[in-house]
Amino acid sequence: AVAEEPAQARAALEEAQSLWQALDSPVGLARTRLALARLLPPAAAQRLLTGVVEECRRIGARHIAAEAAATLAELSDVPAAPLTIRTLGGLVVIRHGQPVPHAEWRSRKARDLLKMLIARRGTPLARESVIEAMWPDEPPERATARLSVALSTLRAVLDPDKSFPADHYVASAGGALWLRRQHIVIDVEEFLTDAAAALAGHASRAGALDALARAEARYTGDFCDEDLDAPYLTALREEARATYVSTLRALADEYARRDDPDAASRCLLRLLAKDPYDEPAHLALVRTLDRAGRYGEARRLYRAYAARMAELDVEPAAYPYAGG
User: Fold this and answer.
1) Is the dihedral of CA 67, 225, 264, 193 positive or negative?
2) Is the pTM of this model over 0.90?
3) CA separation (Å) from 20 to 8, 16, 28, 30?
4) Residue 167 has pLDDT above 90, yes or no
């Protein structure tokens, strides 16, 4: 990182790579390889980054996987989408590959309007419904004027150079507003589409592991998790969350079938982080560790499971022996 010459940096990173391999530290190794890829010729960098993305998705290192995937996309010369909206883990609008600075919004209501429209998934939303949700105590005339300002601000943020007609991203007609989803890349929609296909593949046992891992890696947080109290975001948030839980469960099952207890355990632990009272996940985790011969860890987690069930006044299931 501090070497002045690229050759020095490359030599140091290659040495660090060997050390991380000897230490069996996949996260340190992935970070080192990501830095190393930036000093390699394009073809070699692409091969290295592809491995980093796959391994980081497998172990759940989402941020490194995302950074490696973005670097890989830069090397592939694929132009960035005109407009991408990230919602999983918080709202971020990206124009031509560059995030929109928070100060450029100038209006929280414009951001709220965008979230509301995303949650509608392209179906028209009556202006009256927007006003009722965002300005319930305002007189109708003032609320209508404020909605017009918020809509104008939103359109200016999405397309500041006016490269497209005013309704290219946000349409308005017949007293309703809606997003033209065909013009926007929205991460929650991509996740739901990919997860549905991966889960269908899991059901048919048709090359499910890679598809499930890719779908799971897309989920970087709950939908617009900075606004957990907004009722109009709840339905899509819960749908995405439930889909993520199903994807994790299926991915853990695939890893278990391939006799990879470490990867299966990581998936089950992430699942329990979402729902600490998920009894099937608790029992699957204990069974996975027992099958791997990690008896002390399995017993400890079984006791943790029993304690969770006691909080709910639920009788815990018997210890799930691997052979039982």
Assistant:
1) negative
2) no
3) 18, 6, 6, 9
4) yes
